[in-house]
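Tutorial handout. Part one gives the primary structure; part two gives the three-dimensional structure as tokens.
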Amino acid sequence: LHAFPTRRSSALRTAMTILKEICLQDGMARVTDLETMLVMPVPEARAYTIPVTLLKKVLATRPQNLSVSADEDSKITISYQDHKVTYSTKDPDEFPALPKEKFKAIGEWSRDIFQVLATQVRYCSRDELKASLTGVFITQEKGQLAVSATDGHVVRMQNGLDVGKAKPLAGIIPTKPLLLLARLARGHTKIGMSDTHLSFSLPGDVTMYVRLVDEKYPDVASVIPQEFAGELLVNRDKALEVIKAAKPFASRDTHLAVVDTFNGQSQISVDNIEEDTSWRAPVPVTDQSGELIRVGFDLLLLEKVLSGQQSPTVRWQYINPDAASVFTEVGKEWDSGAVTLLMPIRLKDKEDA
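Part two.
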């Protein structure tokens, strides 16, 4: 229950008070937010609902015993320890039903797969008007899983995840269930698929049903550059320290920072027209090759990209100031195969300025 709070992100979900309940019916307990449903068998033949918040309060006392009784006025009484709490149950028939479609087994995912999927969540959009970008896009083919996430400015992709003998799959998984699965999954989890949902078999005889986002995902793979004009190897932690120091001086509207590369070094510049300030600091570079570049970035997005890299050294590759830059991890022990793209902010020419 603590891993499955009710959502209040839309008027529809808020209006449907039944979603704030746990439904016990036909020997099963169900809880849902319409996007995700958790189901588990319970030794209970009666049908009634329990408010999630009420049950959390009861369970917070860690009762040694607990019993439920009902009267003729749709009142339910929960007895625990020497305490009793009575409430009005809602009609279980109003609770959203289990997915009716037929599910087919498509393979098993390890816990490591769910951890990778959870790391993609931070790169998804939170804009509900961009529904296709609010989840992680997955494709499964020939025993390999590929995942993508983007908010329209930053793209994070990872290919070649081994899923063994698995059937083809393609779809957009919402972010919230991915975070839950990263917490709840153990060992290898069996996956099922219908036309609109995925199912996950979890410990404790729990099944999670996840509604796929019914949108077409953009072709993010097509924007990955195949050739580069230059690259730098950057110390991640020191670069993040510079970015942290630069943020207070950046424009609150654009967060614009300019990165200049020199022979064997680079510099971050932040010019704030509103406050009439200019801020500069060097960024440590361990290696540099190819053409030099002067490019504009959103400072907050650059921080997001670098903080998402696991290796102490990050490879930054680029074509020109108007094309996406690519950031990857350096070192065999760090190389996850993940590729992160960051779109630049076009800098005005001196004549334009």
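Part three, for discussion. The CA atoms of residues 326 and 341 lie 5 Å apart. DSSP finds six helices and 24 strands in the chain.
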